Automatic annotation (TrEMBL):
Belongs to the class-I aminoacyl-tRNA synthetase family. It is found in: Cytoplasm. One of its GO terms (biological process) is arginyl-tRNA aminoacylation. This is Arginine--tRNA ligase. One of its GO terms (molecular function) is ATP binding. It is an enzyme of class 6 (ligase). A motif ('HIGH' region) lies at residues 124-134. SUPFAM superfamilies: Anticodon-binding domain of a subclass of class I aminoacyl-tRNA synthetases (SSF47323), Arginyl-tRNA synthetase (ArgRS), N-terminal 'additional' domain (SSF55190), Nucleotidylyl transferase (SSF52374). Keywords: Aminoacyl-tRNA synthetase, ATP-binding, Cytoplasm, Ligase, Nucleotide-binding, Protein biosynthesis. It comes from Pseudodesulfovibrio hydrargyri. NCBIfam families: argS. Residues 427-547 form the DALR anticodon binding domain. Its EC number is 6.1.1.19.
Amino acid sequence: MRAKIHLEGALKQALDNFGWPWPEKAVIEPPKDSSFGDMSANVAMMLAKEAKKAPRAVAEDIKGALAGDPLIEKIEIAGPGFLNFTFAPAFWRETVGVILDQGEAYGCSTMGNGTRVQVEYVSANPTGPLHIGHGRGAALGDSLTRILEKAGYDVQAEYYINDAGRQMLILGGSILYRARQVAGQDPAEPEDYYKGEYITDIARDLMAERPDLLDLPEPEAVEACKVYGKDIILQGIKDDLAAFHVRHDVWFSEQSLVDDGKVDETFADLTASGMGYAADGAFWFKSTELGDDKDRVLRKSNGDTTYFASDIAYHDNKFKRGFDLVIDIWGADHHGYVPRMMAACEALGKPGGLSVILVNLVNLLRDGQPIAMSTRAGQFETLKDVVDEVGSDAARFMFLSRKSDSKLDFDLELVKQKSMDNPVYYVQYAHARIRSLDRKAEEAGVKAAAVGPESLAQLDTEWDLELLKLLDQYPDYVEAAAKAQSPHLISMYLQELASTLHRYYTNCHVLSAEPGVASARLMLLDCVAGVVAGGLGLLGVNAPESM
């Protein structure tokens, strides 16, 4: 981050002195091959036409203009006119002062500029406990919320409660069926119902609370079961997410859209904009005008609204609450629904206002053997069971170790291993190892140095510089993760930082080094510990003091 900022400022000053504009397509980034230097810029090639010179000639002019910068050690011209820059060790050593001065704020940026963003995630039907697939979406949404806030966005996390529609009637019927069995009756098995043991538990509890349940007319009994079951299951979902350290600021009810007239309000908006119309006794969304293969019905001729109608009304409500961007996290099986929802947001006057992140399947394994999961059949590993067995930290880190649209194998036995082959243990151990060293240093009477020319000068090995350069990249990774809406970038960075730290220990003595060197290295390692803790915090994972 600092390297890019410094270089961009120096280049802009040089171009201004030459009377050349800053190219719109200028790119400043680390070269793919680190042997080429610390940063590379294409500005010379972008300016060739404006300067009326060959790109390499422009590059030579720029190189000469920056030759006196004391923080740039070497400038080389490569290929057709790329400029490769190597910064002086003194530049990288300044990173220590920046990190220690900013503390927990290190890595914060103003990239988001206060943009209001809503992240909606999990939103599982309140018809059963959360399973491991929901856990991956929960970890992703919660971590993304943390990252966006770190990058300067104003973020609200939301859970959409699907408490209206057919699945809720099925829940009510399932509980009533089990209640009749609990009462010793032999009811006919429903064609479609939820079969998990939790349904029987809910039925038994409801029977104790409502002894008259089975005396009620069928519709009233189903409604009583539905409401009671929804409330019990939803509270269980909230408890499970709290144990998983997942935050939701708003719990939004689908039923409230109907009760508050928001669906009809959205239909009126679509009609006014020419994107909604009545035909054949139904109400339609004119989605063909936005690239769909056919128009979509929102209200059927019998008066029932479709799922799509509620979804459009819900997103209309989001935008009317003042969000500039809404991010939905969905299961990968909903990929075909994305273009339709994008078209709906465009019809609502918010083109580009919706971003959808797809979360692929989690293959849950135990010692390499798959565990079958099906909510309806009652065969699934709940998120609570997984968290109870492996811990929230291990589960969250594994969920965030790969891009969300990639399939993920999650072996319960593997993630419990306390070995360097376990990525979460590997990263957490990096933090614990430094804190253990701090305790040993205190016992030995060795203190971390204060930032100053003499102490920074002690950080003069290639291993010191390797760590310093990586620490400087942390703010870049935060911004990249926010921009790409990809928390796994933070996970990748932390694994690289942990690997670099463990390599540092192999090559550099700390407490056994000369006093001045030992104190300087403790100072550097305190910076590493702070960045590891901060990065883990963005993933919702703890940074232990000991392991």
